[in-house]
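Onboarding guide, step 5: your first structure request.
Type a short instruction followed by the sequence, for example:

Predict the 3D structure of this protein.
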Amino acid sequence: MRDNEGVVVGASSWQVSSLPDSEVVEALAMRKGLEFAKDMSFLNLIAESDASNVVLVLNVHQQSPNYLGSIIRDCISLNGSFRSLNFLRGRPEANQTAHYLAKHALKNLDCIWIEKLHLVFLQF
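The system replies with structure tokens like these:
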């Protein structure tokens, strides 16, 4: 999570079992991020993903009757938790933090960082 100036103010990583494709992974990450933002009581949110198809279906509220569609429905249902929520295609440089978190999750238990972030996050 970043504030309006782009500074990381919270981060999390979770281990998940194998998933069918990268779009499902991105959609699950979006849902976890929205749940995290709701728990942190953020009101105005810009949710970014580098998966353009996931961003597209979230913006048009397109739901399909499959596993990905159920995750998208969950994300859309969380919309009411925020004053404003916009789904955008993320900047490539923002991916560095996500890649670090993914590597961290491979070796560690589920983690959430709030306020006292590990110094490596501050460089992204």
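Each response can be followed by summary notes, for example: The longest strand covers residues 44-49.
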